[in-house]
Each structure stands twice: as C-alpha cells, then as structure tokens.
Amino acid sequence: MLEAPPAVPPAPPPSPKGAGPREGRFPVLAAVFVCAACGLVYELELVALASYLTGESVTQTSVVLSVMVFAMGLGSLLAKRLRCRAAVGFALLEALLALVGGCSALVLYAAFAWLDGSRHALVAFAFAVGVLIGAEVPLLMTLIQRVSRCARQDAGGTVADLFAADYVGALVGGLAFSFLLLPRLGQLTTALLTGAVNALVGGALVLWLFGRDLTGRERRLLLSANAAVLVVLAVAAALVDDFERAARHAVYGGQVRVAVRTPVREVVLTGRADEPPGLYVDGRPRIGGGDRHRHHPVLVHPAMRGRHARVLVLGGGDGLAAREVLRYGDVESVTVVEADPVVVRLARTDPALVRLNGHAYGDRRLRVVHADPFPWLRAARGDAPYDVVVSDLPPPGSAGSTRLYSLEFYGLAARALAADGRLAVHTGPLRPRAYWTVEATLRAAGFTTRPYAVAVPPGGRPPGGTATAYGRGLVLAAPADPRRPGPPVLGPPDPGPAAVPSGGDVPTAAALEAAARRAERSRPPGPPPSTLTRPRYGR
Q1: What does the pLDDT look like over 211-225, one tens digit per residue?
Q2: Strand locations in 160-233 (E)
Q3: Which end of the chain is more exposed for a tag (fewer CB within 10 A), N or C?
Q4: Distance from C-alpha of 306 to C-alpha of 310, rounded to nearest angstrom
Q5: Annotated binding residues for S-methyl-5'-thioadenosine, as ranges?
Q6: Residue 271 falls in which region: left (phi positive, over 0), alpha (psi -120 to 50) or beta
Q7: Buried-exposed string 328-361: b where 16+ CB fall within 10 A, e elsewhere
Q8: Would residue 282 show up in a list of annotated catalytic residues for this protein?
Q9: Membrane-crossing residues (predicted)?
Q10: 286-336 residue pLDDT tens
C-alpha cells in the first residue's frame, strides 16, 4: 500500500514590497489608530459647531450623529468597489477626507456669518464626512488582511486587532479634542491640523508599505493629491486669523474690541469704548448697542416688591441685573453666580461696560461666585434663604443651558428662596413653545407664576432676530402658599424711604399689565414641564 506524500502547505501570498509581514502589520494598525482619532475629532468638531452656531445642543447633536452613522453605513457599501485597488483607493480617500473634514469648520462658520445657512451646510458636511469615514474600514480591513495572511494570522485575530486600534484611537481623539486641541487651538485650527495629520498618515502608509505595488501613474497621482490637500490646509491655517476677523465683522459689525474663546463659551464685545457696547455670548446678543431696549429693569424691579435684603443673581455676569438690584438702598447683600470669569472680568474692567452696569462690581454689597448655578444651588442647602432670586441665564435650548430651566433646577431655586420670596426668570427671545414650557415647569416646581413679555421696539431687534413673537419673555414667580392665593402681584416696587432713585427705567403698573396681556396672547394649550430626563426645549 502506497502512502500519500505529505501535504505541502500552500505558499503564502506575496507580502507588500518594501516591508516584511510583521513589519507591515504595525504600520497598518497605527494608521487605523490615527484615522479613528481624526474621525472622532471631525465628529466632535461638527457637534461643537452645531451647538455654537444653532444653540440647540440636543437637537443638533442628534441630527449630526444620526446623519453621520447612516452615512458611515453607506460609505462602507460604496467602498466595496475600491477593494480591488485598496491601497490607492485608501490613500485617495484619506486625502479627500482630510480636505472635507479639515475645511468643514471654516465653511460652516462662513455659512453662519455670511449666508445664514449653517443648518443645511452642517447636515451636508455630516453626511460627507460620515461617508468617507465609513469607507475607511473596509479598505483598512483589506490592507491588514493582506499583511496578516503573510504573517499567518487568523481572520478573527485580524478583526480583533483592527477594532482594538480603532477604539483606542477614538478614545485618544476624543480626549485630545476636549482637553488639548479645542482649548489651545480653537475650532478652526483644530479641524485644519486634523486634516493635515489625516492626509500625511494615509499617504505615508500607502507609499511606504505598498508603494512598490503601485504603478508610476498611481504614485504620481497620490503624491499630487496629498500635496494639493496639504497646501490648501496650510494656506487656510495661515489665513485663519484674518478669516475669523472678517467673519466676526460680518456677524457683529466692524467694531469688535474683544473676542475671547473661553472653556465655557465665546465672548465678543463690540463698539467703541466711548459708546454703549454690544456684548455677545456664543454669537447671541446679551447687550445690543444701547441699554434702552434691555430687559433688566423690567426683569428686576417687579421682583423687588416686598422684602429684598438678600438677593441672588444667577448668571448676569455683565452686571446689569446687579445694577438694578443695587439701586435699592435697603439691599444688604447681592450674590452673583456666574460660570464664566471672562464675562465678569470684562464687566469689571471694560470702560463702556463699567459705565453701563453703573460700577456694580465696585459696590461692597456685591459678592461674585464663579460656579455653575446648578451644582452651586445644590451645595447651598444650609445657607440663609434669599428674599429675591433673579435668573438671568442663557435662554433654554442653547448649549448647556437646558438643565438650568428644568423642574429639578427650579426645585433647587425654591429651596434657596424665602417663604415670601420672589423669583424672576428671563427666558430669552420669546418663542411661545419654549417660553410657556418654562412657565409650566415653574408651576410644576411649586411656584405660582405671572408671565409677561417685553416688546422689541422697531430697530431694537438683535441681529439675526426674527419677528416671532413679542421680544423677550419673562416670568415672575413665588412659592405657592395657601395664605396667598393667586399669582404674585405684577407691579412696580412699593414706595418707601429706600425707593428706587429718580431717573431710572422703573416700569409702571400699566406697562407691566400690558406686558402680561402681550404674553398671554401667545399661550399654547398646556405644554408639559421640562425635566433633566425629559427636556422639552428642542425645536
């Protein structure tokens, strides 16, 4: 009986020229790591821009992530056509992704500044970046399989290595964006730098590891494409400061005196030092040129009817709410809780803003606490109650502010308020759905409420404002008490020896009643309250 000859194992497929199997596997995994980090930076960049440019963090984050995930699946399907030329396809794909992702912040900010079309551009970039990121994985899988077959690694181990490098890269990219890139470089430069890294790594991997497998025409194409992308990104990075100045000029006008990007928000101060300033926080007006159209007198003075020895101002770092409070001689102490020290520093030092807030920060009765109002109220449980609480916070729906208009937040405010105290809430531009949700949330937290609205006179509407409504929404609230049936009285402060000095913009009873009627005309049928787990302020 003849024995069969021993089986000869099949010869492994040829390895990429220029590197051995083991030497080639590490560069591919390193490229996976870098591509994952860059992809997450693009994604977080779009989410951050969505929150900043539109102010609707939850809604726009959902749109960006949903569109990107869908587009990634579509990109994975489209990449099947490139697998036969995986190396050159991957390099060209990375060059295109570097160009689109790197320039995304510039284009979106330009659309916001000059075209007022940032929402549509945001969806388009989320889709384009998602398609390109999704196409990376099948091509990288093909490249790493070529190397792994040479190293005789099983398919399961190959997939495990690829996804491990991908997930670790995403972790590093996410942490670097939040703690290093965004605080130090800003949104525009971060995107451009990420694009440059993306293009360099993709081109270097293919040209070094698989370069000898490419034709001369393919090598010239890859070199030209990557060089062109890097030149575009380098020119954009060199001009980014000029671009930002031009965009701010388009958004805020020509006299931008201060523009600061803090870890909390962007703060812009406009106007000459000898005229009323404009203060913008995250692109939205807090002070619009003059003080005659501001809401602070109408917000503060109705709440000062009754005892007001101890006053708490939540937000209001510009000092304008504190200015109105400090006009009362019998106010003993004012505590301003402001999360952003930059706004307070400007309110203390900028000549135009100091004049506008009446040197409020020079009053010995005023104390400033740099803290987020939500955790600060939670920690203030043992403090003496306040007679008046003034909430002058960014409007609901803007980035990071929705929780400051929640049932839980108003429950904390009620705990800090005296039994006969009053809470004044500014809700921002009067959009009926958001405004009446604030009012419903206050009632659910145990307050009785009196809603009212300040009209925006002709010429007083902020840049980019719409005609929705009646201007600015306000609510006067008081803890519900069976001994005081009905809502709090909406009227000017009681006359007395410590009455408001003459010459102030103290609203009259007739004006406040007109403001209440104005608000009631926009009341929709019963909106539910907003909570931390069920926010209701998205459009």
Answers
A1: 788 888 888 999 999
A2: none
A3: N
A4: 12
A5: 265, 338
A6: left
A7: beebeebbbbbbbebbbebbbebebbbebbbebb
A8: no
A9: 26-42, 62-79, 91-115, 121-141, 162-182, 188-209, 221-240
A10: 776 554 446 888 999 999 998 999 999 999 998 999 999 999 999 999 999
